[in-house]
Design brief:
alpha/beta, Rossmann fold, 6-stranded mixed beta sheet, 4-stranded parallel beta sheet, 10 strands
């Protein structure tokens, strides 16, 4: 199981005219370019991979429907993509997830199951449903078609920034990171930014395989209980890694809101936070990914007010 640059190019043709080509613009204050993926369909980059995966379903698979596992952006993206393709969608969430995100996912037409007690139990339930009901499981970060779809973001960067040298991007399960690495194929260095309190990806790299970790971060979009096996395989030895604190993520979010006028979520601000904190040195040809904007208004207000 792997992903090639040709797979990413094919994904771009699949997605053409169906998703937004999000803007890339310069931030003089930060000294980098910003890829504003929070303006994507459903509010994050996840729509790219979700639609690329569901568009590839066979007629027989479409009849059976899909199931996925997520409490946030991936859930909304798969629900939206399934609606676009006329496919029944079940999303496994769990007790304690954001009511707003659950409601948004329902709003795109999916059925949401909130009964599992935690993320790990919800994941096991999603796999069981796929087996019992024959639904296709749309993995949030280890499906080759999902990764290829995410990689289309980097193709846009290469077109927008002829001097592209470095891409800085937040990492959780690794799907977006792996897509970018695959699409760039050595054309630029890639720096993965991970919360200190959610180190699924770095733990997986260190162990040589996906391992479960405990997470406790404001950047819930970067806090899966484990990283994907496929992203770990694709990114091993091809990325640099940086850890950011909770304060640095919050500082990044406040900076993007105040100076770039981007109302992003904490996960979408992690990469900018690393540059702002000096953990990644701003340089010519550097692109920072603002990956999403789906945040609870109360959480956003508290962060912006420094509470």
């Amino acid at each position: 199981m792997s992903v090639s640059r040709e797979d990413v190019e094919h994904a771009r043709s699949v997605l053409a005219g169906r998703i937004h080509r999000t803007p890339t613009f310069t931030s003089a204050s930060l000294g980098v370019s910003l890829k504003a993926e929070l303006f994507q369909k459903t509010g994050s980059f996840k729509a790219r991979g979700a639609l690329n995966r569901i568009a590839a379903l066979t007629p027989e698979e479409r009849e059976r429907g899909v199931v996925t596992w997520s409490a946030g952006n991936h859930a909304q993206a798969v629900a939206w993509a399934a609606g676009e393709e006329g496919v029944d969608c079940l999303v496994q969430m769990w007790v304690g997830v954001s009511p707003l995100k659950a409601e948004a996912t329902r709003g795109y037409g999916a059925t949401v199951d909130l009964s599992p007690p935690d993320a790990a139990a919800a994941y096991e339930r999603a796999l069981a449903v796929a087996d019992e009901e024959g639904r296709v499981f749309v993995h949030p970060h280890s499906d080759p078609l999902v990764v290829a779809g995410h990689g289309t973001l980097a193709l846009e960067l290469l077109e927008d920034l002829t001097d592209l040298e470095t891409v800085v991007v937040g990492v959780g399960g690794g799907g977006l990171l792996a897509g970018i690495v695959t699409a760039l194929d050595g054309r630029a260095r890639v720096i993965a930014v991970e919360p200190e309190r959610a180190q699924a990806f770095s733990a997986g790299l260190a162990a040589g395989r996906s391992v479960r970790v405990e997470t406790d971060t404001i950047a819930d979009g970067l806090a899966p209980p484990f990283a994907g096996e496929l992203p770990l395989e694709l990114c091993r030895g091809r990325v640099e890694a940086v850890l950011v604190t909770e304060d640095e993520i919050a500082d990044g979010m406040r900076f993007l809101y105040a100076r770039a006028k981007l109302a992003c979520e904490p996960a979408g601000a992690a990469a900018a936070g690393a540059v702002l904190a000096g953990k990644v040195e701003a340089a010519r040809g550097m692109a920072v990914i603002v990956s999403g904007g789906n945040v609870d208004p109360q959480q956003a207000a508290a962060i912006l007010e420094r509470q």
